[in-house]
């Protein structure tokens, strides 16, 4: 066939764009690859050291492990923080007593949860303003703000607030968790002296939900195991979710936080429903 126009057949075809040979838009850039590699290595190393923390941290030595702890001596079964409650808890096979302490006006370390005497004894005033010998007996029944029991009643005539010294003397080998309820240098010092006097630094855990009190305990006697303050517990949870936890040392020995169900008891149902609805909406 003769080409009478003098043009080549290829010139009659429309221009078709040829795909570019560059794949830069398909794959991360050089900087993106570096960032992706660093992030992948960080996540992998965080998971690895979270699984095997003793490769970079010294394992904490604990003299005991507890699965049964009697809060305030078992406040749902007897009057809280009484010798009767502590004895009953031991008879039930508890592995640790949990109790609270305040300082009386004459400098005694008193086992009691409330610093104000209204709920426990029905009297106005505070433990810090009263000598130990003048402290009133507790009421025959006390309200319980946790668990399935609303009221605990005295099982005998023992309604006296004991001294921490008495508890240490009667339970020399039983682990005890001591919650210091006052931000007091004297209370911290006297509690530490009692723990050392009864040679139970290895059998006692102490601290408080307030970080200021917990720090005083650490400075006073770093040999006594501590539980987490609220601030430290929240920081630890944040470090866990960001992957930083395996790389940072933890000073505390026992992770102790309140159950969310306790707080929810004091929140109106409408507010709880609203919070749940907002949480579900945010996840959509």
Structure description:
The strands form 2 sheets. Strands 1, 2, 3, 6 and 7 form a 5-stranded mixed β-sheet that branches. A two-stranded antiparallel ribbon has the order 4-5. The chain is α/β, with parallel strands linked by helices and 284 residues long. Mean pLDDT is 83; it is low at 1-5 and 269-284. It is 35% helix and 10% strand. Helix 5 packs across helix 6. The longest helix has 22 residues, at 30-51.
Parts with pLDDT < 50 across at least 5 consecutive residues: 1-5, 269-284
Look at the helices and sheets and give the structural class: alpha/beta
Largest sheet: 5 strands, mixed
List SSEs in N-to-C order. HEHEEHEEHEHEHHHH
Cα end-to-end separation:
69 Å
Q: Give the DSSP E fraction (strand runs of 2 or more residues).
A: 5-15%
Beta strand count: 7
Radius of gyration over all CA atoms, rounded: 32 Å
Let me know the average pLDDT.
83
Assembly level: single chain
Question: So how many helices?
Answer: 9
Shape: elongated
Roughly how much helix do the residues carry, as a percent range?
A: 25-40%
Please outline the helices and strands.
Layout (H helix, E strand, L loop, with lengths): L29 H22 L17 E3 L11 H9 L4 E8 L5 E3 L6 H4 L19 E3 L7 E3 L10 H7 L5 E5 L4 H13 L6 E4 L3 H10 L9 H13 L17 H5 L4 H15 L1
Parallel strand pairs: 1-2, 2-6, 6-7
Antiparallel strand pairs: 2-3, 4-5
Helix pairs in contact: 5-6
């Amino acid at each position: 066939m003769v080409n009478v126009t003098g043009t080549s057949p290829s010139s009659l075809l429309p221009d078709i764009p040829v795909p570019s040979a560059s794949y830069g838009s398909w794959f991360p850039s050089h900087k993106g690859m570096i960032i992706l590699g660093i992030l992948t290595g960080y996540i992998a190393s965080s998971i690895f050291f979270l699984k095997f923390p003793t490769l970079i941290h010294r394992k904490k030595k604990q003299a005991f492990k507890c699965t049964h702890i009697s809060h305030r001596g078992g406040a749902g079964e007897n009057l809280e923080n009484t010798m009767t409650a502590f004895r009953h808890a031991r008879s039930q096979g508890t592995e640790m007593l949990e109790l609270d302490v305040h300082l009386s006006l004459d400098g005694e370390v008193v086992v009691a949860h409330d610093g104000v005497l209204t709920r426990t004894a029905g009297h106005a005033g505070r433990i810090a303003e009263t000598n130990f010998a003048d402290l009133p007996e507790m009421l025959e029944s006390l309200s319980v703000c946790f668990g399935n029991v609303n009221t605990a009643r005295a099982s005998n005539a023992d309604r006296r607030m004991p001294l921490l010294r008495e508890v240490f003397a009667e339970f020399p080998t039983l682990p005890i968790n001591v919650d210091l309820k006052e931000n007091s240098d004297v209370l911290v010092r006297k509690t530490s002296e009692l723990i050392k006097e009864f040679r139970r630094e290895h059998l006692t855990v102490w601290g408080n939900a307030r970080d200021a009190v917990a720090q005083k305990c650490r400075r006073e006697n770093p040999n006594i195991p501590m539980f987490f303050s609220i601030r430290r517990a929240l920081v630890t949870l944040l470090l866990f979710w960001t992957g930083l936890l395996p790389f940072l040392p933890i000073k505390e020995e026992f992770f102790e936080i309140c159950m969310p169900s306790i707080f929810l008891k004091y929140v109106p149902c409408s507010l709880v429903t609203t919070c749940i609805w907002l949480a579900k909406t945010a996840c959509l």
